[in-house]
Amino acid sequence: MTESAEFSREDEIALGHAWDWFNQHAGQRMQSINMMLVSITFSLAGYGLAFQARNFIVAVAICVEQL
Hints:
The chain is mainly α. It contains two helices and no strands. It has helices at residues 9-52, 56-66.
């Protein structure tokens, strides 16, 4: 037997609020991961350029900054 789920107005408001909260925080987590990936990419590019230019002090500084 299948029962249809009927929600009251208060339940609908609560469910809407819960989904909005979840969507907002999931979006923030995705933005944090994207920011981390972008910063790692730029740091690796800077490290590669510094190492290629034989500027080892800058290369070491970039490595230490990533710790």
